[in-house]
Amino acid sequence: MTDNEIINQNYKTFASGFENLDISIIETMYTDDAVYLSETPNQGIITGKPQIIELYQHFFEKIAKREARIEVDFRVINRKLTNDSATDVGFYLVRFHPKKETGDQISVFSGKFVFVSQKDTNNQWQFIVDSNTKMNPELYYSAKPISNLYYGRQFNTEAKSISVENEAEVGSVPVEAEHRIP
Q: Is 182 helix (H, G, I), strand (E, B) or coil?
């Protein structure tokens, strides 16, 4: 596999971790000294894999407690690749599926991301920098595929979009201002 193919496969693996609420998958995606920069104004820079995994574990527990599920996907629009470093810029989209018995609709929220990946001695690519911001989901939907870059699934626009302003106020969406999905 080429480096582009391996990096693109990482997005599928990462999404699988979220969809299965499997922290062990997420843990394989980060270097030990990775940093996480959230768009949340009151959260500092999270440094180190254990602290990043703790955030994700807390997030996964919220979803599991609500008996909900999520789908996550990415669209990479730019990649700078060297022999041992890759910087990807793109959009992510999260679809939150509440427990069926609630009668709530599927909710959608999204953002922009920057992932910096580093190749290890086993030719595996892991995130060393993970940064994200909120945005209107329409930007994800309107992103065009770019040759050799991960484009993800074809989520439709039928789900209810959560506006950036009121996202944290929606009770059925378990992603408060303290943590976002990159």
A: coil
